[in-house]
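Budget justification aside, the reviewers requested a transparent look at the raw inputs and outputs of the sequence design task funded under Objective 1. We therefore reproduce one unedited record. The lines immediately below are the structure tokens for a 242-residue chain.
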């Protein structure tokens, strides 16, 4: 019931303004009392936890959700909530510099645009944390047992991100995305495909290259202009022959 009320509030908030975008987040099934520890400002039943406010320019006004001065949940609380879902790998990044609540959502890696902007170690690490937190049970590698496993799989993830970025930059015909293959070794990917020719032939995102090779299971594939053109050409030739 609380989640439904929150969802209604978010819908109403988005309908009222184009300046701020509100989103469903992990506060949406909490009571007002349960939300109180996360914020020093709780001025009314909808003052906190309605979603995430993102200003039209990408950030909100000072003090508003989405702004640089927005009060964030402390890292310790994020760890209390989601610590069983992610492990921090060995990295050159000081994890204290990360705002973990910002690393808990797929929006840090799930579009071509945001992937293209990942180039610093802290951004790779944040995306890797979000990737772990949002794993689907029964799909791919389970949540990691310890830091050692996270450290082992982090390079696989970073390479996958770089590969996806590269492939998206090469073509507009197909969209490649991070998916559950991205923390697997090449050996671990083999059972998912009968085609294993080439170390990058599987598990990068989604794609179609005319049948010369087969990339991984599709996350999202745009209609290929080449396929449509080829089909149209065959049809026209057939009609001409008649």
């Amino acid at each position: 019931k609380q989640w439904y009320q929150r969802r209604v509030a978010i819908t109403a908030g988005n309908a009222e303004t184009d300046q701020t975008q509100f989103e469903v987040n992990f506060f949406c099934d909490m009571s007002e009392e349960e939300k109180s520890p996360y914020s020093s400002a709780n001025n009314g039943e909808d003052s906190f936890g309605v979603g995430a406010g993102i200003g039209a320019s990408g950030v909100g006004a000072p003090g508003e959700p989405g702004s640089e001065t927005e009060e964030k949940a402390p890292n310790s609380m994020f760890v209390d909530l989601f610590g069983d879902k992610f492990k921090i790998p060995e990295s050159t990044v000081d994890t204290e510099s990360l705002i973990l609540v910002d690393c808990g959502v797929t929006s840090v890696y799930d579009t071509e645009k945001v992937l293209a902007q990942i180039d610093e170690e802290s951004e790779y690490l944040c995306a890797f944390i979000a990737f772990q937190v949002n794993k689907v049970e029964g799909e791919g590698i389970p949540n990691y047992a310890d830091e050692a496993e996270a450290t082992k799989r982090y390079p696989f993830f970073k390479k996958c991100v770089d590969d996806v970025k590269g492939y998206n930059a090469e073509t507009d015909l197909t969209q490649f995305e991070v998916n559950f293959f991205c923390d697997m070794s090449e050996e671990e990917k083999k059972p998912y495909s009968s085609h294993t020719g080439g170390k990058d032939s599987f598990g990068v995102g989604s794609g179609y290259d005319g049948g010369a090779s087969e990339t991984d299971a599709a996350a999202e594939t745009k209609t290929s202009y080449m396929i449509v053109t080829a089909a149209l050409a065959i049809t026209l030739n057939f009609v001409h022959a008649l």
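Residues 98 and 131 are 15 Å apart (CA to CA). Confidence is low (pLDDT under 50) at residues 40-48, 52-65, 196-202, 206-242. Computational costs for records of this kind are itemized in the attached budget.
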